[in-house]
């Protein structure tokens, strides 16, 4: 039997690189150009695997110019957005501006925003709505800290974040949304949750959307939503995580800053084990 990811690839795998606060606008362009060449040389097929990068806000205009100018098969998004559309919100960035820069995605509720900037579930939900208002696909980030994991309540905790994040959305919006499960204890620590941990949570999230929220959403919503895993993903562990049935992609931090490493994650199908 040949092993494939998420059953039959009916949900196109998404490999997302979150640059966090790394690579200035000049470095970002050089990096992206190299990544595009490397993927081209490796015969990357964008119809099979989608690649997205999440540069700092100040890089986005340069990234847009490069991607559009050179017709790169790479999409991009922002790392955050304001829940508001315009006004006296010093330092915030509107989804409207991100849409003008032709961003496809926006990260919402990343654990570094939740912890370092004390973003609440309620604020995260407002940001999810703001993204949809401007035609951006939100990548809703959820996941538990170490204490919650040790107490064994990680599934319950993460599902509560999901329920709160999708509150007030339509079926179509939920089906379009991407959810990234990132156990906080595995982010940037080298501690990676095992493929079975990633599958356990992604399956629980899909199950919750299918069962608990079925009264709110259309029947095929759970089957269509894409679920990512994030936390110390590298070329060496990506394929084993991505072969799990309910895992449709990965959100990569540190390893997305190395062209060869990230390109190798994108090419994970080459590392899938054949049973
Ligand atoms: O957004 C990415 C995640 O925070 C994972 O970061 P990491 O791959 O450096 O652990």
From TrEMBL:
The entry's keywords: Cytoplasm, Gluconeogenesis, Glycolysis, Isomerase
Record-level GO cellular component terms: cytosol
NCBIfam families for the chain: tim
Metabolic or biological pathway, per its Swiss-Prot or TrEMBL entry: Carbohydrate biosynthesis; gluconeogenesis; Carbohydrate degradation; glycolysis; D-glyceraldehyde 3-phosphate from glycerone phosphate: step 1/1
Substrates-to-products reaction catalysed: D-glyceraldehyde 3-phosphate = dihydroxyacetone phosphate
Family: Belongs to the triosephosphate isomerase family.
Chief location: cytoplasm
Protein name: Triosephosphate isomerase
InterPro entries recorded: Aldolase_TIM (IPR013785), TIM_sf (IPR035990), TrioseP_Isoase_bac/euk (IPR022896), Triosephosphate_isomerase (IPR000652), Triosephosphate_isomerase_AS (IPR020861)
Gene Ontology BP terms: gluconeogenesis; glyceraldehyde-3-phosphate biosynthetic process; glycerol catabolic process; glycolytic process
